[in-house]
Amino acid sequence: MSVTETYIQETEDDRVARWRLEQLTRAGYEETAALVLADLVDVDLHLAVDLVRQGCPSDTALRILL
User: Fold this and answer.
1) Angle at Cα 43 formed by Cα 42 and Cα 44, nearest 5°?
2) How many CA atoms within 13 Å lie on the side-chain side of 13?
3) pLDDT band at residue 7 under the 50/70/90 scheme
4) Other C-beta atoms within 10 Å of 57: how many?
5) pLDDT band at 51 (very low <50, low <70, confident <90, very high)
6) Could you give the CA distance from residue 43 to residue 28 in angstroms, rounded to a whole number?
7) Phi first, then psi: what are they for 59, rounded to 5°?
8) How far is CA 66 from the centre of its chain?
């Protein structure tokens, strides 16, 4: 199999984490905070997004959520 034929198969968990990351960065989280939160499925995404959209700095929101 050539390099061009090789691909990485994305799992459902990977797709969910990628989608969460997109939502968090779109809401205004800095990349590092978004990466941390995206992998923590026990953190409520809607709460995380609402905190930042209502003016909470992303580093403060991260501390609240963790």
Assistant:
1) 110
2) 3
3) low
4) 14
5) very high
6) 17
7) -70, -35
8) 14
> In the prediction, which pLDDT does 37 show?
94
First to last CA, the chain: 44
The residue behind tokens 């199999």 is 1
State which amino acid sits at residue 40: L
**Chain centroid to CA 9:** 20
Cα atoms in the Cβ-side hemisphere of radius 13 Å centred on 51: 21
State the Cα–Cα distance between residues 32 and 35, nearest whole angstrom. Answer: 5
Give the integer Cα–Cα distance in Å for 30 and 24. 8
